[in-house]
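User:
Care to share a sequence and structure tokens?

Assistant:
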Amino acid sequence: MSTKKKISLKELIIDKSKIPIIDEKGVLKDALESMSNHKYGVCFCVNKKNGKLLGILTDGDIRRKILNVQKPFSALLNDDLILHINKKPSKVSINSSLSAAVKLMKKKLIWDLPVVNKKNILVGMLHLHPVVKLFLKKN
């Protein structure tokens, strides 16, 4: 019988206090600044009153917007964030297994995954680096 401790998703998520989060009233520039300050390539948009996840914005989303939106960059930065987020992001429940979360990340080719509770309230993020670090430590 194995004595190895099984690592849960809860042990690896980054708490919401340490990730870029902007409420739905923010503008694109706010999201970019938060992403830069937190050093992650993703920003989460939540409802200000209840903390429910409304969507996400990634570095890739911004890159595609810059290439496809025909307006001055300064005007784009002042757009409402809600206009540019992915409103149906991949996400996992806080009660999901780490294995299921990593499989979803692999399938979707993503590095960051929002973690929500039963009410879709953002509780944190699973980032690929701690998962890889854990895997390398075990082997």
